[in-house]
Amino acid sequence: MPRFSYLLKLLAILIGLVVILETISYLATRLVINQAVTQNARAELLAGGELFTRIMQKNVEQLALSVKVLTEDFGFKDAVATNDEKTIASALINHSARVKADIGVLITSDGKLIASDQAFGRKIRDEFTSLKTQAQTRGQAYDIILIDSRAYQFVMFTVKAPVVIGLAGMGFEIKKDFSTDLQRLTGLEVSFVSHDGNQFHFLSGTQDDPLAKTLIEQLALEKKQGEVFVYDDLISLAVPAAQQNNHLLAVLQVPLSEVLAPFSRLNVQLFMLALVFAVLAGIAALFLARSVTRPVRLLADIARKIAGGFYTTPILVTSKDELGDLARAFISMQRAIGEREQQVLYQSEHDPLTGLPNRLRIFPELENAISRSRPLKEVVFLLVIDIKNFTQINDELSQEIGDAVLREVGQKIARILTYGEVLRLGSDEFLAILMAAEQESIAELAELIHAAFKAPLLVSGLQVSVEVNIGLATYPNDAESAESLLRRATLALNEGRSSERRTCWYQQGWDEKHLRRLHLFREFEVSLDAGHISLYYQPKINLERPDTLGAEALVRWRHPEMGFISPDEFISVIESSGQITILTRWVLKTAIVQLRQLLDEKIKITCSVNLSALDLLVDDLPAYVAELLQSHKVPAENLYLEITESAIMREADKCLHNLRRLRDLGVTLSIDDFGTGYSSLSQLKKLPVSELKIDKSFILNLDTSADDQLIVRSTIDLGHTLGLSVTAEGVESEAIKVLLKQYGCDTAQGYLYSKPLPAKDFIQWVHQYLGELPA
Amino acid sequence: MSFKKSELKNSGRESLFLVALLFISLPCLSAQLQLTIIDDKGQPLKDAVAALVPVQKTDYTGVPTALIDQRQNMFVPGVLAIRVNTQVKFPNSDDVRHHVYSFSPAKRFELRLYHGMTAEPVLFDKPGTVVLGCNIHDSMVAYIYVLETEFFSITDDQGQLHLEVPAGKYQLQLHHPQMSGEYPESAITLDKAQVVNRTVTIDNLSAMKTTEPVDEFSNLF
Question: Is B220's CB within 8 Å of A74's CB?
Answer without folding.
Answer: no
